[in-house]
Design brief:
Blueprint: H1 2-11, E1 16-20, H2 25-41, E2 46-52, E3 79-83, H3 85-90, H4 95-111, E4 115-118, H5 123-131, E5 136-140, E6 154-156, H6 163-175, H7 190-202, E7 208-212, H8 224-236, E8 240-244, H9 250-258, E9 264-267, H10 271-279, E10 283-286, H11 290-297, E11 302-306, H12 311-314, E12 321-325, H13 341-344, H14 348-363
Parallel strand pairs: 1-2, 1-4, 2-3, 4-5, 5-6, 7-8, 7-10, 8-9, 10-11, 11-12
Helix pairs in contact: 2-6, 2-11, 7-10, 8-9, 8-14
């Protein structure tokens, strides 16, 4: 059976392919070019994706069916299989948790996937790939969690420096013929587009930059008051600043606005609305976090403020960008609560200068 499926891959006739990348926002965005390349390689295949429920809008708008013919609202995959890991972790032994797991497993097996590919490299993602029933499971030879490799039937040596390149090399190995790195198409929701236009008109936004003070953990978080200073300076150039914030980041938004001297306003969005908002932005400024990677994937010019994470691997990719990182920052993914010391060495004026440089070059 495996030989049959591999022959189909080589001929470009693979019929059912499952992608596994559960989270988080930036990591899913870093997987999208590889997934798009697989779509181009197998244009008629049924492609499914297992993803955490809270990130499903990166694949499909909230008002669109998770299954069926592709459309601008769900442009890449035919099946979006969602899981709710947070609920399962909070109530792992409840009847409802087990019922949901059984239902999801039955739904995935019903598609009869021929090949699954685990882009996450974790034990849980590799196990989900195996439980899908696909006879061929691809993964990298050195996954993030070593034990994940025991579930793979095909192991690929990841190549490239940036994680997007590494993910793409996994897709390339599956197809076994030259592929071009593609542009990513995100879901487009006319209602969300109209809502964002209305809110921008209400705020008299005109040309605007998006500033994003939040981060996945404290070590990556540049002080919000400095974002307020940047907003004041951008206002001198006629550019309004919108402070993007998510749940639990209200204090960061307030601190940035309070120090902006009226130059910035807050804007919270669903993922679908954030996609629409970023399409209209002139510039994005933020740290290593999901919205930065979304902005880069949409081609928005980006000023990246990096501390403990390595921009060579995780920086903005494929868009005009300036990345700031102090030489004293050491690469680490430790989820420390306080800003990295090297990150604090990046001054507000450095960020303003980078933003102005990027605005000049992209206008030209």
């Amino acid at each position: 059976m495996k030989d049959v499926q591999e022959n189909l891959q080589a001929k470009g006739d693979l019929q059912r392919l499952l992608i596994v990348r559960l989270s988080a926002m930036g990591d899913i965005i870093h997987t999208l070019p590889a997934a798009t390349a697989l779509r181009h390689a197998f244009p008629d295949a049924v492609i499914g994706w297992i993803i955490e429920e809270r990130w499903a809008e990166l694949l499909c708008t909230s008002r669109t069916s998770r299954s069926g013919p592709r459309s601008p609202q769900r442009p890449l995959v035919d099946e979006v299989h969602t899981i709710n890991l947070a609920a399962w972790r909070s109530s792992p032994f409840s009847n409802r948790s087990w019922e949901q797991m059984a239902l999801g497993l039955s739904e995935r097996r019903a598609v009869n996937y021929h090949v699954a590919v685990d882009f996450q490299g974790a034990v849980r993602s590799a196990l989900l790939a195996r439980l899908s029933g696909a006879p061929v499971i691809y993964g990298v030879a050195q996954p993030r969690e070593h034990a994940a490799s025991m579930w793979y039937t095909r192991q690929v040596i990841a190549r490239g420096t940036h994680i997007i390149e590494q993910n793409f090399s996994l897709a390339q190995a599956m197809v076994r013929r030259p592929l071009a790195l593609p542009c990513v198409e995100f879901p487009r929701d006319p209602q969300a587009e109209g809502e964002v236009d209305r809110r921008l008109a209400d705020q008299d936004a005109g040309e605007f930059a998006i500033l994003n003070p939040g981060a996945g953990w404290g070590a990556k978080q540049w002080p919000p008051e400095r974002y307020g200073y940047v907003a004041r300076k951008l206002a001198e150039d006629g550019l309004k600043s919108l402070i993007n914030f998510g749940p639990g980041e209200e204090d960061l938004m307030d601190a940035a606005i309070d120090t902006s001297g009226g130059a910035a306003e807050g804007m919270t969005c669903s993922i679908t609305e954030l996609i629409a908002l970023l399409r209209r932005a002139r510039l994005f400024i933020g740290g290593d976090t999901g919205p930065l990677h979304l902005a880069a994937a949409l081609g928005v010019p980006v000023v990246g403020i990096f501390g403990p994470t390595n921009p060579a691997r995780n920086g903005p990719f494929g868009t005009p960008s300036v990345v700031l990182r102090n030489p004293t920052s050491l690469t680490s993914h430790a989820r420390l609560p306080h800003p990295d010391k090297g990150l604090l060495e990046i001054s507000s004026d450095e960020v303003v200068a980078a933003a102005r440089q990027l605005l000049r070059s992209t206008r030209a």
